[in-house]
Amino acid sequence: xxxxxxxxxxxxxxxxxxxxxxxxxxxxxxxxxxxxxxxxxxxxxxxxxxxxxxxxxxxxxxxxxxxxxxxxxxxxxxxxxxxxxxxxxxxxxxxxxxxxxxxxxxxxxxxxxxxxxxxxxxxxxxxxxxxxxxxxxxxxxxxxxxxxxxxxxxxxxxxxxxxxxxxxxxxxxxxxxxxxxxxxxxxxxxxxxxxxxxxxxxxxxxxxxxxxxxxxxxxxxxxxxxxxxxxxxxxxxxxxxxxxxxxxx
Length: 249
Known about the structure:
Layout: H1 3-14, H2 21-27, H3 33-39, E1 46-50, H4 58-63, E2 67-71, H5 75-84, E3 89-91, E4 105-111, H6 119-129, E5 130-143, H7 148-160, E6 175-190, H8 191-199, H9 202-205, H10 209-225, E7 234-248
Parallel strand pairs: 1-2, 1-4, 2-3, 4-5
Antiparallel strand pairs: 5-7, 6-7
Helix pairs in contact: 2-8, 7-10
């Protein structure tokens, strides 16, 4: 695939989430509270959540007592976010075009979103909005494929498409003191929530209808046949939450 075709595909995937906003809200997991504590300094007052989606991380920031500004480009996702996290100020925008004043926030976070950013544009824009000494925090939930049934699930999903994430990205100046951490935890969910989680993946949203139906059918067969899952009302899905934080010089 050429670089231009790859970029076109990336943009298509990035723009796809509005079509599955409700599934995203129902199926995507939250994040461990210790990750919030690690990413955002307790001394911060105002925090911007970029690519906030339906507010999975936003609501944790509000619960931690921060004044939160959520920025999200998808109208459908913003509608879910506003309903679920009414305490957050919600704006249309992207990491490359943040609708906030210079040096106006103490910390910026991006949950499950940095891989959609053009760093050449996003890094200087984020630096513009952050106060000197402010923190940039990036976070991803990654399914833990050390669990055998999760490895089988990933094989099914990646047979149809694959999204390789760089969950330890390098960050250019003016960001420094880059640190990383991992948190392991288990998300308990129902069967339908698992299907919603899968349906909210960008690479699944953009599949042709027949191929998406085939994928979901294969997942159903896994749930019905695997000894760790069959006849279970609750599914325990293990995650590794990977975090990066850096300081604006």
